[in-house]
Queue: 2 jobs
Job 1
Amino acid sequence: MGRMLIAAVLALAALPARAGEDDIVLRGMGSFHVGGRIAEVSGRPAREIVRIPGGPPSKLDPNGEFMVEQMYVQYFLPRHRKGKLPLLMWHGGGLTGVTYETTPDGREGWLNLFVRKGWDVYVSDAVERGRAGFASPDVWPSEPIFLNYADPFERFRIGDGEGSWNADSAKRKVLPGNQFPVEAYDNYMKQTVPRWLSTDKAVVDAYLALVDKVCPCVLLLHSQGGAFGFKVAEQRSDKIKAIVAVESASAGDVGKAAALKNTPTLMLFGDHVDQHPRWATYKKIDLEYAAAIRAGGGTVDVINLPDIGIKGNSHMLMQDKNNAEIADVIQTWMVGKGLVE
Amino acid sequence: MGRMLIAAVLALAALPARAGEDDIVLRGMGSFHVGGRIAEVSGRPAREIVRIPGGPPSKLDPNGEFMVEQMYVQYFLPRHRKGKLPLLMWHGGGLTGVTYETTPDGREGWLNLFVRKGWDVYVSDAVERGRAGFASPDVWPSEPIFLNYADPFERFRIGDGEGSWNADSAKRKVLPGNQFPVEAYDNYMKQTVPRWLSTDKAVVDAYLALVDKVCPCVLLLHSQGGAFGFKVAEQRSDKIKAIVAVESASAGDVGKAAALKNTPTLMLFGDHVDQHPRWATYKKIDLEYAAAIRAGGGTVDVINLPDIGIKGNSHMLMQDKNNAEIADVIQTWMVGKGLVE
């Protein structure tokens, strides 16, 4: 018996992948693209280009078939799964899935934190953002927009509204008690990407393809991702089992909100929302949509973080210094909704 | 003694993160952006835009300071590290780090395979690609180029050269014995992204910043990434301890190749290279560069995969059906160079 136990101890100790308590143990990780369509371009002149200095010339034909309007998804599947459904994290405007990765100041983001909590997490780049790629002017006639340094600082409740940005960091007017890691604002700006104002339908279509591929699921939506997420959920209410909307920048169609009667929803808001007209407007839209869901027989919980004693959160709550605390608020809500084993 | 052993067995069994043999066990994973500069734009008219239909209008100011020319990096650090140095995977033209993730037909890519071999792997998106973002026409005056469906098929030795593409898949002329997963060519096209022909210096500058942040290291370069990688290695030869160049599409500056005298290099080529003038030209450039490294006292090994019995590889070797076999060829070379514990 003693010998058998020794053998058992040795067998356990010899397992190739022993993990420590802080390790992330995955049964799988990978990525894919989903959605998209073929666009045809014709009648444009071809030309010779040199792709790499010193290399041979080759033909560039701007005509033909192009793959456009696909989106990118990366997934991480923990060995010890506790979330009953995949958790899909959708980013906001001018951003990519990087929103949920390491924070600008180098802490773990919600991707890691929710994988550690046992969720299968799918982080994506919407159509036109990041690894989704974007289409040529022959396919999308409008121009992309670009964010200057002042824009997110003043608009995302990092600084105290318009005029709060200054190139001299000592002169920036940060909102009092702000949780955003302002010292890493340069890194945050590096995460921003151009966006178009004309691609909403394509974005929604690709999200629908994603939902059809990996759901039933829970959606975690941020900002512009909320507007897309609610529209998608109205069309796939059987597959969206819960929604966490983090400062959703507008919502779905009030007339279709009843579709979410079986989709419990959490709306989460940071600090200083009511004092900033832009966010007060979006919040009003969100709450009207929440009322419409309730009128249709559904349930919506609204958490204003300052009301539960969590102060100073910017619009980028998942990157704020207390992002782990907010992740716990969301996790507690999901546990309460029976979404965790 | 028996009781102590039982206790020991129970203690081992109770560890929170027990991993199975196929699991990926990470001591950390995350991402960051690196490099970049602030570009100033002035004198352009501001306008009002509505960012999200139904939302409040806001000012879009195309003037100001913009963060441009940064790059994106994602890293995976295995618990049981065996590679002595970080392994940096740099993608080719019109592509992103997705090159190294799940293959278009859903198998594990070199990212997963080398993490499983115990390497700290850093997969990146070069300046202007994917999650690196791109700059406005006010900063980069030239237009990006876009790849149509025929282009990589005919150019990357998937099809048999020019004219081999056909929109009707039954009429496509695939190279005989080709290892590329042609049935998933749609998914491959979804991975392609636009690129510019004018940003080479910015790309190299960001790669230099990456090397300064995470090296000493080993570089694994593909295609256009080879041209960038050798240029970077010439300037940071103390930090680049080995190079694996997978069908490098041109190389560095022959006059500076001697800088690599202490950087053992492997040049790897797939099948049908000599019969396709484009790739024969690049190979000639690579071999001339290899000769210059050797003349400077360095060592370069050249493996033509067909010469060692590995046939049918396209330009996208890391996605070909036998990608695991080629990963093993690279691993064996790295072991031979003393890069593995």
Job 2
Amino acid sequence: MGSLDVFFNPKVVAIIGASETPGFGMFTTQYLLNSEFKVFPVHIRREEVFGHKAYRNIREIPETVDLAIIIVPTSQVLKAVEDSIEKGVKGIIIESAGFAETGREDFRNIQQQIAELAKESGVRIIGPNCLGISNVHNKFTSAETDFTNVRKGNISIVAQSGVLGNIILDWAFYEGIGFSKVITLGNKLDVDEVDCLEYLRDDETTRVICLYLEEIRDRTRFLEVARTVVPKKPILVVKSGRTAFGARAARSHTASIAGNDQLYDALFKQAGIIRAEDFYEMFDFAKGFSMQPLPKGNRVAIITASGSLGILASDEVEKQGLTLSHLSEQTLIAMRKNAPDWVSLKNPVDIGPAQLEMINDCIKALLQDEGVDALLWIQIIPERVAKMLGLPLPGRLAYKYGTQAGKPVIVNTFGSPWMKELLHQKLDKYGIPITISIQNAVKIIARMLQYQRMRLKFDKI
Amino acid sequence: MGSLDVFFNPKVVAIIGASETPGFGMFTTQYLLNSEFKVFPVHIRREEVFGHKAYRNIREIPETVDLAIIIVPTSQVLKAVEDSIEKGVKGIIIESAGFAETGREDFRNIQQQIAELAKESGVRIIGPNCLGISNVHNKFTSAETDFTNVRKGNISIVAQSGVLGNIILDWAFYEGIGFSKVITLGNKLDVDEVDCLEYLRDDETTRVICLYLEEIRDRTRFLEVARTVVPKKPILVVKSGRTAFGARAARSHTASIAGNDQLYDALFKQAGIIRAEDFYEMFDFAKGFSMQPLPKGNRVAIITASGSLGILASDEVEKQGLTLSHLSEQTLIAMRKNAPDWVSLKNPVDIGPAQLEMINDCIKALLQDEGVDALLWIQIIPERVAKMLGLPLPGRLAYKYGTQAGKPVIVNTFGSPWMKELLHQKLDKYGIPITISIQNAVKIIARMLQYQRMRLKFDKI
């Protein structure tokens, strides 16, 4: 079987069904034709597309083509695949929908025919019913990705749904999350999550893998491959279709047979994969893994400007099997230095409105305390107070002492969009993850520790 | 015991410890002195505060004063309370911290002495260690509330933590949430959550009550009073200190003894109170209760532009004991009218990129379907597509048919801050709640139904 590399680093691309009309496919056509990639538009009637000479058929292109992107109506897809294979491509992305997911026998048969063509020819096919891929590092995309609003990074996504190919990227930009490769799989007639795991395992720009799945067909192979990935990099997963209603909905979406959820839970556990409840949780976990060192133990120090959030965090610490650090005498003395009398220096350290005076002392002392394995920093302040007095956000300090000690720092906040944006401005550059959920803030530390322990176990085998 | 009304509608107010210096108390002083309320600054040294004549002692004010706000250092609080009582006030708010929550015997004793003064005199006292109150309708506040960034509405908050008096309000403005009264209780030496529940039960501008509690001292009285409130309006609660770590943190925050969490669960259940896991969940529930009619049954219709979010929503529908509506033939015909072939018209109705053509037909038909008790509308679209083609957001239509049929409509979204802001611009005016959590979107419907059924049961008694 061919490598997936053709999808991420194609030399010559044909867009079959290249479109100038507003609607699906237009952005991809427009972007790629004006990019540095060598791209030929194919259209059954048009002479030109966005000023570029168009070809009636991929076979008429006077060069070797290694990747075909197909966005024609359903009825024309089979022919386009046949032509592409004849042309000698190595990879095909079928974005068109209307196959097995419709539940109709005739459409399912066409999908089956295409699958057989892939098998016979060795040409790799992604889709149908998907957005294909984006490679954020070289800026190649079949998924209408707007790279001016996507950060480069080390998180890769493999998803059986288009929403992770665009909407999540729109959102992630403001979350300080950076990506390497994004793959949407759709109905998975050929390329599936296992192929992608294998590829991303060996991909140097990928440090964390996020999966969204509606089904896994070959669980044995999935388990086998996943167990070769996890020792190298963490895999996070959202698996939907957990209930009968959800399973039925998955069938209409990507023709998936969702299957028994408890079996999936067991499978993920066996494979060392970390399961998340929803996309927010998965990407909160990914932030931690992507940006921070793994904790070496379960002792958490909390510094907070809100007593109630400190309590809710403490509840979650216990729920997640972590513990609150016992702070050393030295740490207490260092934090007391600029502290008003009323401040409680127990852990959680509740500095309330004294954050301007105390935050630097606290961050440094807590990260240097040998009884601390991870720091949770709850940063809240009323917007008008921040606007008047400024915002104490010693990101560089936290970065410095966190890195020195090899301890993760996670920031939690609550507040207006203005506050959140300001936090990102000040902390993103130091790779300090920000989450708005206090539960997720604690869970990030718990999952990173879980992964750290799992990896040690793998090392021993 | 005196009524709490003096806190929300005071005639003459004294600020003891009125402050011009940036820091705690300054905003309240500045705002109230420049407001239409009659307010006298009290300061031991100053002649003037913000250009207003200051008095050395509340007793020197040449008028009857009914409310004193105390923001002096801890050591001066007892004397200020004695003076205020002598002056004949009906209510006192003590914002100063440094009492029982320090864990120190001497400070706890002072708090106890003040509590006894309250009891003897009948003067009601809120605090210490709190921000006091805000009345969003008449714009009176002791909590530094910036009313230019708070919406009037029908949700009232009773909270044992300051964060709900300011940070949550900063945030809520952008969430389309409107408030009536906000009360932060701190250490609760006199006024507690039960007093507030009684007051808000009979408050005409309050439709939903949100509680944040670290402890309930008198559970019998709480249960008694809550059971008189719930038939009239829903009570939502976040109770922290659920674990040993959380309980210990609560002691340092408001001197609370958090107690056994299972007992609290049972208590809330008995009282008909709806418990939330965190602030986001509580205020998502509050949005539903505040803006929408209660569902009459458990049949949910889902319209979605994202297949995967439709599946995750379906999973949550089943988890919450709700069911997916079986759509009538008439509804299917109406939705088919402008639909492309590939659209799946099962429930969840997955309209994908066809939302521009179909959304109006779908919303109208689904809300008119007799098999539908509630509509979940999952609204997502890539930002650049929305910017190019416009965003189909028929809020007026959803409002019209939702109101006509007496069915709740809940919107869920995922995306960039730009998208979220646009949704609020278009939907807030129709009172359609927006949540970014797909789980919470479904839970809102479930909790509203739970309340509806509970209320019917109360009616029968």
